[in-house]
Amino acid sequence: MQWRLLINDAEIAEFLATQGFDIIDVETLSFDDQVRMFREAKCIVAPIGSALHKVIYSEPDVRLIIL
């Protein structure tokens, strides 16, 4: 995604890690692992993009923060 690139993603990731979030590069996971990760997540923080389409596998009460 070139038109809405985060310029401080490293800083955001560092902050989220200090808050107890796991930093995961969804592209590196198999489809099954991606579905499992979204299904088990309580809170998801991510930039807008196609990876968020898998939020359909999440529980209805998942907290979703789109950057």
Provide an overview of this structure.
With 67 residues, this protein is α+β, with helices and mostly antiparallel strands. The protein has 2 helices and 2 strands. It has a two-stranded parallel ribbon with strand order 1-2. The model has no long low-confidence stretch (mean pLDDT 91).
Summarize the SSE layout with pairings.
Layout: H1 9-18, H2 31-40, E1 43-46, E2 63-66
Parallel strand pairs: 1-2
Number of helices: 2
| Structural class by secondary-structure content | alpha+beta
Uncertain segments of ≥5 residues (pLDDT<50)?
none
Q: How far apart are the first and last residues' alpha carbons, in Å?
A: 13 Å
- Mean pLDDT value: 91
- Strand residues, percent: 5-15%
- Proportion in helices: 25-40%
How many strand segments? 2
Shape, per Cα inertia axes: globular
List keywords for this structure.
67 residues; alpha+beta; two-stranded parallel sheet; 2 helices; globular
Summarize the entry for a quick read:
This protein is α+β, with helices and mostly antiparallel strands and 67 residues long.
